Description:
mainly alpha
Amino acid sequence: xxxxxxxxxxxxTLWMRWPQQIRYLLVGGYNTVFSYALYAFLLWLGLxxxxxxxxxxxxxxxxxxxxxxxxxxxxxxxxxxxxxYVRCLMTWGVSYVLxxxxxxxxxxxxxxxxVAQFVALVIxxxxxxxxxxxxxxxxxxxx
Length: 143
């Protein structure tokens, strides 16, 4: 066990030397794939006629995974988890509304729901980085 912990700490130290934007791109890419996979799976399970519901459910399920990966591996935040999670949900709420709007717009243009969500995710990814960096995981002075 001690050897595993040493290897993890070594890899984590090397990981944290990478610029934050690169870490976000990699972790955010993983989170985007995770979220999209949940969305596609929900469509496949029978929600194809209700893509907005599939989007909501995938958002709810993937937000927990995304929070912890962003907190630890991108922003390396030592803040209290619950307040940061609430701020993350608020910032993701903005991204969710934008995502839902784009999805509805593309579906109204008769796009395939899989393709529509993929395009919407690409557009909101950059938006999410800035919201997380400056709102959710910002340092709060305790004066």
